[in-house]
Design brief:
transferase; methyltransferase activity; methyltransferase
Length: 37
């Protein structure tokens, strides 16, 4: 995590990307689980 005075927006954007990434990973693993059964 980068803590610079002008980069609060980047930090918010970073957490938003993390949430999107986690959601994507969850979809992928759910899809794989669906294929297995």
């Amino acid at each position: 995590m980068f803590h610079d005075t002008g980069f609060i927006v980047t930090e918010i954007d970073y957490s938003r990307r993390s949430i999107e990434y986690a959601t994507e990973q969850a979809k992928n693993s759910f899809a794989k689980a669906g294929e297995c059964h």
